[in-house]
């Protein structure tokens, strides 16, 4: 006889909105992972709001050499996150949101609907959720990308929201060029993007944080909410023991580049094509039309 065991949750859910004081991508990604690893979300859910200074963030299973147009004249930080999905550009006019829950009550669609409703109520900006679960305007222009990490017992869904980011800079960094790379890594899908300020110039980061946070704290479904309000957090080792270890790993070469799935890249050398085989970010061997040579 088979038995089905279900986990029962209290009908009372404690909700909290946290705002990170940091604009450092590695600190914010480390903070996000710390909460995922150490928190108990059995009868609690949490929304973390954060803003980064200029950076590019690739998905866990992506190839940075394929996704980013490297420019040695630009001091740009590149980070790899723990969730899947495609590459995104962050600056101080892009709002990041992370919704934490227990895995059993994870609901990405509900989070996106919350954002759509907030934009409509506060600024009369009409958006919709497409099949890829991006938030778009006119079924064409993307204003928010989404990704998630589903574990046990915790899960999170995080997404971006373009307020007034530098679209030209973003386009130059992420525009697809032929790079002669063969890979099984996740490849980003190019989309036309739009800033919220292009629809309504009264939208701003601070008010958006407040509006999304207040909407999040409202009672949803059949649960009763204990509203813990808004709190600011500063990512550091003193407040979050083990934080530095996570941060150091996330900003290491081994994580950002060494975790790249194996790939081949074809380059021209003395009018001949040479195929480089790269594993863990390091060239293993290269081939010419005639033979295989060890480096």
UniProtKB/TrEMBL annotation:
BP terms from Gene Ontology? protein lipoylation
Ranges annotated as spanning the membrane: none
Coiled coil stretches, renumbered: none
- Please provide, in alphabetical order, the Gene Ontology terms of the cellular component aspect for this entry: mitochondrion
Which PROSITE patterns does the record match to this protein?
Answer: BPL_LPL_CATALYTIC
Record GO terms (molecular function): lipoyltransferase activity
Residues forming the BPL/LPL catalytic domain are 41-220
Q: Which InterPro entries match?
A: aa-tRNA-synth_II/BPL/LPL, BPL_LPL_catalytic, LipoylTrfase_LipoateP_Ligase
Biological pathway: Protein modification; protein lipoylation via exogenous pathway; protein N(6)-(lipoyl)lysine from lipoate: step 2/2
Report the family membership: Belongs to the LplA family.
PANTHER family assigned: LIPOATE-PROTEIN LIGASE (PTHR12561), LIPOYLTRANSFERASE 1, MITOCHONDRIAL (PTHR12561:SF3)
Q: What protein name applies here? A: BPL/LPL catalytic domain-containing protein
Q: From what organism does this protein derive?
A: Acyrthosiphon pisum
């Amino acid at each position: 006889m088979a038995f089905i065991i279900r986990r029962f949750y209290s009908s009372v859910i404690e909700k909290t909105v946290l705002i990170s004081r940091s604009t450092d991508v590695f600190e914010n990604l480390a903070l996000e992972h710390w909460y995922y690893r150490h928190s108990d979300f059995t009868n609690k859910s949490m929304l973390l709001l954060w803003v980064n200074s200029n950076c590019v963030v690739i998905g866990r299973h992506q190839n940075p050499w394929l996704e980013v147009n490297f420019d040695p004249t630009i001091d740009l930080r590149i980070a790899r996150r723990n969730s899947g999905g495609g590459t995104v550009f962050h600056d101080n006019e892009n709002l990041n949101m992370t919704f934490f829950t227990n895995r059993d009550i994870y609901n990405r669609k509900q989070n996106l609907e919350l954002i759509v409703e907030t934009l409509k109520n506060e600024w009369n900006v009409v958006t919709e959720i497409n099949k890829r679960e991006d938030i778009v305007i006119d079924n064409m222009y993307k204003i928010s990308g989404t990704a998630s990490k589903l574990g046990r017992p915790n899960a999170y869904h995080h997404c971006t929201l373009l307020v007034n980011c530098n679209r030209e800079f973003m386009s130059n960094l992420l525009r697809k060029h032929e790079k002669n790379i063969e890979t099984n890594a996740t490849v980003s899908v190019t989309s036309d993007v739009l800033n919220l300020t292009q629809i309504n110039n009264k939208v701003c980061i601070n008010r958006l944080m407040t509006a999304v946070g207040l909407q999040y704290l409202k009672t949803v479904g059949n649960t009763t909410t204990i509203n813990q309000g808004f709190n600011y957090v500063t990512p550091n080792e003193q407040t979050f023991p083990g934080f530095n270890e996570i941060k150091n790993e996330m900003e290491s070469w081994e994580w950002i580049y060494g975790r790249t799935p194996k790939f081949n890249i074809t380059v021209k050398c003395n009018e001949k094509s040479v195929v480089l085989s790269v594993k863990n970010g390091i060239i293993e061997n290269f081939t010419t039309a005639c033979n295989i040579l060890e480096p």
